[in-house]
Amino acid sequence: MSGLVAASFCGFTASACLLQIHVACPSDTTASGIEVCVAGVGCALTDDLGIASITVPSFDTYTVCVTDSTLPVGATLSPHCQKVKVVDLAPPVVEFVLGGDFCSTTPPPGPCWLTGGGQIGKTKGAGNYSFGGVVYPGCSPNAADGGNWNVIDHSTGLHFQGQHIVVDSCSGVSTRSPRVNVNIIDFHGDGILNGIAGNPDATIPVTFVGRAVDNKESGSGSDMLCLSVSDGSSTVMQVGNSTADPAVISTGNLQIHTTGCNK
């Protein structure tokens, strides 16, 4: 499934989170000017990549809806609304799919970017890691400074926030949803690491290397993620053993896109 992807990027406090919303066809075709609303919070319009952002005030369950009258000519959508649970700093992906004649055009192959959210591992019914965010939206280093990528290690109470991201390569095999010619994205950058949920660790600058593998839809039990975070002298967070041996996600999804990359 491709479509409306909601991944939340939260600041240092739990009082406000930026909900990022992506509206697109199964082919990843999209349009600007589509109105998306969060009930009781507000509305925003999608940009050329089909991404809209709305700040929500707290961790809670929100109803996100797409306004039918603003859909592109020939596009359809069902369902029109879904519930989005924002329960930590890296909530899971929520997807809606556009349909109709508008979706008949397949974007050309090219470099890639990533959306995703979910959890890895499980201890006593809870995920060991939560992850979510956007990497290199539209293949542009200028869009949100290369995106944002959040990972929470629930066992240590550490929150990683990738703030400046560069894509190193797009490789692998073709996938059908969205229809792209690669399924592996390698990226690196810098950001911050800080303690949450009772962990008093101060915020420190870090660098990181990551890989995401989009194997199928939906991604649970199939898609894979690796992330290695360093403070310059040691590894302070490690998800997966290595880029050659990434961790399989337990819930959620990882999606690689090529829309906008040849502009």
Can you give a write-up of this model?
It contains no helices and 21 strands. Mean pLDDT is 83; it is low at 1-9 and 11-15. The strands form five sheets. Strands 10, 11, 12, 13, 16, 17, 18, 19, 20 and 21 form a ten-stranded antiparallel sheet that branches. With 263 residues, the chain is mainly β. The protein has one domain (5-257). It is 0% helix and 48% strand. The two termini are 24 Å apart. The chain has strands at residues 5-10, 17-22, 35-38, 42-45, 51-56, 60-66, 76-77, 81-86, 98-99, 113-120, 129-135, 147-153, 158-171, 175-176, 179-180, 184-195, 204-213, 224-230, 235-239, 247-248, 251-257.
Keyword list:
263 residues; mainly beta
- Please indicate the count of domains: 1
Cα-to-Cα separation, first versus last residue: 24 Å
Total number of helices: 0
**Net shape:** globular
Residue fraction in strands? over 45%
**Portion of residues within helices:** under 10%
Q: How many strand units?
A: 21
Q: Summarize the main sheet.
A: 10 strands, antiparallel
Structural class: mainly beta
* Radius of gyration, taken over Cα atoms and rounded to an integer in Å: 17 Å
What's the SSE pattern? EEEEEEEEEEEEEEEEEEEEE
Low-confidence stretches: 1-9, 11-15
